[in-house]
Design brief:
mainly beta; 12 strands; 46% strand
């Protein structure tokens, strides 16, 4: 359960064939995690088409390690963000006020990934 002080933000659009992943399988160690997963003032929701994976973290304290940031700009739900890569993952992270939003995508084309990020909206 996300506390009342934390806005709930979700994508309005997902890439074709994507839906909630259940359970969330951690990319790093492969353990099964609940989806959505929350802790303190943060939460994470993951989506998949059975091959690709998009993971959105709202209230992120840290950015993924070893991100190579591009010089271009992007948007997450209307908020300014920066785009990068960490290994084979696409990464977007907000650059303005909190809560920080980080979206990572594996085995998903850049265009639908960016469309998903732009569609993030406050639902509560």
């Amino acid at each position: 359960m996300v506390g009342d002080d934390m806005p709930v933000m979700l994508p309005v659009r997902l890439p074709s064939g994507y839906g909630l992943a259940a359970p969330y399988i951690a990319v790093g160690d492969g353990t099964a995690r609940p989806n959505p997963e929350n802790w303190g003032g943060s939460y994470r929701v993951s989506y998949t088409d059975g091959e690709g994976l998009i993971v959105m973290t709202v209230g992120a304290k840290d950015l993924p390690e070893e991100v190579v940031w591009s010089s271009g700009s992007a948007r997450i739900g209307g908020r300014p963000a920066r785009e990068g890569r960490a290994g084979d993952a696409l990464i977007l992270a907000t650059t303005d006020r909190r809560p920080n939003i980080v979206i990572a995508g594996w085995r998903v084309a850049r265009r639908p990934f960016m469309e998903t990020a732009r569609s993030i909206a406050v639902v509560r």
